[in-house]
Design a protein that fits this description.
Length: 345
């Protein structure tokens, strides 16, 4: 008989446990040190961030509301970071050129992207993009939402939404609207209104809503959807009337204008947004730091007040909340774009 077989089982186990414990303890130490060595560069990167100027790319021309907001946030981030935060306008292709440049940038937190709603609608409207939003970009913070406001020409004999809809159904052949182009926010909002109110209004695209204002004032254009800021200079003249807010709440900058739900079209909402993203694979600690700092700026009394005066509802979200928001907006506009078979390739 083998001598080992005579050793009692309990004694055999006891003889091996200390060695096993030593081996497991050693493996745990090795694993812990390995994980710490992997995490250390990212932790150090976040603690040192930013150590040089940060760039925010805006994929649209200077002068619009998005440009104004981007520069406002950049100024306050510069003060918090003690580093320059530079705004770079890179227009073209309905935001595609600037967005693509950030998607291909180094994932180190020093190149960011400020985007409006076209970020979620462009992939629905275009079959070929030089980037994949989900793969190449990561959410940082939702800056704010921009409820579309509904403005009608002063030539239209209506002072509220109910009167406008009654007049429109009797004058369908005259009914048209201005937009900043096919697939733009104003175009999609008007298509949503056509469906909700059973209208047959016709799109008249312009290079920008500012170019359409003279035709709205003269009565050649019946109505338009855009941010409040586009119409504010003309509201007092009576040649243009803002009669509806396509959001859940009234705007502090226009407290007398009811929401569509209040005016008789329950549940009607159409909004744009502004948000900040970074290249995919940007270290999570840096994304978290950026998100926290941006949210702090947006929620500050000074910046919140300015945003509200522009017709923007300030948010300042964490990355996950912004990501969920974009997915919900994509689902909503996907249905409209699919039903209307809109393409801008």
């Amino acid at each position: 008989m083998n001598p080992i077989s005579r050793i009692p089982l309990a004694e055999a186990i006891r003889s091996r446990v200390p060695a096993l414990d030593i081996q497991l303890s050693f493996l745990r130490r090795v694993l812990t040190l390995s994980l710490l060595s992997i995490a250390a560069p990212f932790a150090n990167a976040a603690s040192d961030f930013p150590s040089r100027p940060v760039r925010i790319v805006l994929p649209y021309a200077a002068g619009g509301i998005a440009d104004t907001v981007t520069r406002l946030i950049a100024q306050h981030l510069s003060e918090r970071f003690h580093q320059s935060v530079i705004v770079e306008n890179k227009p073209g292709g309905n935001g595609v050129i600037g967005t693509a440049s950030v998607a291909k940038a180094s994932a180190d937190g020093y190149t960011l992207l400020m985007v409006p709603a076209s970020l979620v609608t462009n992939p629905l409207l275009m079959s070929k993009l030089p980037y994949d939003t989900a793969r190449d970009l990561t959410a940082v913070s939702l800056v704010g939402t921009i409820p579309m406001v509904f403005a009608i020409s002063g030539k239209v004999p209506a002072s509220n939404l109910k009167e406008f809809l009654e007049w429109s159904r009797k004058n369908q052949e005259q009914l048209n609207y201005a937009s900043s182009g096919t697939g733009g926010g104003g175009h999609l909002a008007a298509l949503l209104l056509n469906k909700a109110a059973r209208l047959n209004s016709v799109n008249v695209p312009y290079k920008g809503i500012g170019s359409a204002i003279p035709d709205i004032l003269s009565g050649q254009i019946t109505f338009a959807f855009d941010g409040l800021q586009s119409f504010t200079p003309h509201m007092q003249s009576g040649k243009l009337r803002v009669i509806g807010i396509a959001g859940p709440n009234r705007l502090p900058a226009a407290p007398d204008v009811p929401t569509f739900s209040e005016a008789g079209l329950p549940g009607f909402t159409a909004r744009s947004f502004l948000g900040i993203l970074a290249p995919a694979n940007t270290p999570r600690p840096i994304v978290a730091e950026l998100s926290e700092q941006i949210a702090t700026v947006i929620r500050s009394p000074e910046v919140s007040k300015r945003l509200l005066s522009y017709g923007i509802e300030p948010v300042g979200s964490d990355p996950d909340s912004f990501d969920k928001f974009m997915k919900a907006e994509s689902a909503k506009w996907s249905a409209v774009i699919r039903d209307e078979r809109i393409r801008i390739d």
